[in-house]
Amino acid sequence: MTEEPEEAGRAPSRGGRPAGRRLRVAVLLKTNTGGMWILPQVTELRARGHEVVVILPAGAGRLTGELQRRGVTVAESPFDFRVGPHALRGLLGLRRLVRQLAPDVLHYHLLASAFAARFATFGMTLGRVHMVAGPLYLESRLIRCFERLLWRLDDVVICGCRHASNRYGQLGCPPHRRPVATYGVDTGRVRPDWAAEAAPGGVERVDWRAHADARAKARAELGIAADTFLAVMVAYVYPPIRLANRGRGIKGHDVLLPAWRRFHARHPRTHLLIIGGGWGPAGEAYRRQLIEQFGTAGVPDITWLETVDDVRPWYAAADVSVSPSLGESHGAAVEAGAMAVPSIVSEAGGLPETVDERSGWVVPVDDVPALADALHVAYEEFEAGRLAERGRAARRLMEERFDNRRSAGLVAEVIESVAAGGRHG
Questions:
Q1: Sign of dihedral through CA atoms 81, 85, 90, 91?
Q2: Rounded to the nearest 10 degrees, what angle do helices 39-47 and 62-69 cross at?
């Protein structure tokens, strides 16, 4: 039986500091380029009157620039989140920085940030809130051994999906210390009619006629006919990791591409759009390897775009989104769903949480024939004119369960609860 964690807003308080006072919250992240998903949480904390400072690696980065543009204080991390001869010096520098900032709560995302935060602040009096972006690291037996002990240094482990919460439960973490709050998606910005004028009074009703116009325009720009079935995969190409997935790339490009070959051979009036460049030089090298291995360069049925600034036009053009990951939290399926695009997802991590029987399909992990069959089922619904209603069901699911503004409120409530009550458990 699947263990259901408590909702994030229900993390209990043990008394102590008053919950209503203005807090000082430090957010620690190992990247200054990715991690844009912290922005709604930072915005919510500030809207509640709390002071927020974000600790990031040195240098310019997309996240650093956006935080500064919004007037959020960014502090340079003395620790570079790498293991090496200078790691201890960096951790001591991070400890001094945190002591200088004197936060009520230190909030950290991603495993490297969690390790750094725990070791750098050991013995210090402050609240610690770890948020799990993706649970893939818990597939490593070695890391599980460490986490079985180290989660106890966190007051609360906020899990970005139920799957991650259940995995921490297997490590002995009690339900009230592993609430769930998704990173989610801004359903107000990522919506099928994003190019239409906002409705008066702030009422967020989708203008489906505007959606149809946006779809036609996006398809025209891609050169995709209205009667062509278009599948899209949106994901960076991450390099293979030796300790995970037997040294294969996590996003499952090497599952989708052979599945597409099987599917397209049966249904030639179809097109695959892949969006996402390599994550770093190693990721780009792996992307080039995939292109050569599966012969995708120059073929008429596959378009591979590198990373784009705005994925909404491409989702608007698509009929179905595919997330064949070998390990994931919620991934691109939430953006696709917010854009009223149904998804085919693998049964990996938290991906099955992003669809239900009305909005998408779940296939076994690393199963090329099953993925090809799911594409066939989606194509049949496309031909029958039923796929659009499945997309609308996906949109409703995102509004109900994955709106990141609601999730940001849950995260803020956990942080306030930790500040008010000190250690949990």
A1: positive
A2: 20
